[in-house]
Amino acid sequence: MTIHTTRRTLLGAALATPALLAGTARAQSAWPGGQPITLIIPFAPGGPTDAVGRMLAEAMTRDLGVNVVAQNVGGAGGTIGVNRVAQARPDGHTILLHNIGMATAPTLYRRLPYNPLTAFEMLGLVTATPMVWLTRPDFPAANFGEMLRLIREGGERINLGNAGLGSASQLCGTLLQASLGTRFTAVSFAGSGPIYPELMAGRLDIYCDQTTSAIPFIQSNQIKALAVTTSAPLPAVPGVPTAVQGGLAGFEVAIWHGLYAPAGTPKPVQDRLNAALRFALADARVVERMTGLGSPPEPVARQNGEVHRAHLAAEIERWRPVLVAAGQFAD
Fold this sequence. Notes:
The chain is an alpha/beta fold. Helix content is 44%, strand content 18%. It comes from Falsiroseomonas oleicola.
């Protein structure tokens, strides 16, 4: 009897081990102190970075066991929110989601109050979002090639919207101007949210935005989509060719996003935040939502700090000559 009882006890323990270990691992992975984490999004609500950030915050909350609260701190092309994180206590309770603007700010802002490569710990790349060229519904171009022809014939007569100096839309427009050797009449807004009503009402001619914001308006036929900025067409916007197919060789732009913590954040805290990031980007709901917006998560191999840091350094060097040649600075 004793032998059978002992065997049953051991068998029960063996069967329970995976669940017990999982529970123990989850308990050990809980966020120290149980305090909420503030995820700073350095732009106004409703934009593409905001959409990515809120998806990320929701999924990371499930993994960390504490609330990850998305907070919008806009202004000055994102630099106000970024600087707030640079100056935050490096304990992991204030983190940052930022886009390609982290790489362009050192050129656009000649008195930038932080150095992107030294003021932060890189936690991993999140997603690389394609962009799409959009026009008002009655714009007299049926395709991207016709849009380019109209621009070449009189670019200054065409209004090009952007979400502010240094925004993804402004960078996309700057590249197009450089590629065509012409100028537009730029109309700047405080974020991407106010641009769509102007575009739909016909008061704005063209706009280049990230697919995460543009797709709902494209699907509802409220605006026209003429080209995507990827090397191949996007399943998320069927029937829309690439800019290269439309006649603009080499025009490829992806607005990447990365997650950051203040410099000096302890390595174990960085590792735990990275684990939560990887958990979020593997979550089926996040993958489905991001992919549906044309912006799937970065591959696992790019979801780490080392790759993130190297990518940021390379992007700073890539964009510097383009922005210097454009001659537009924020200060």
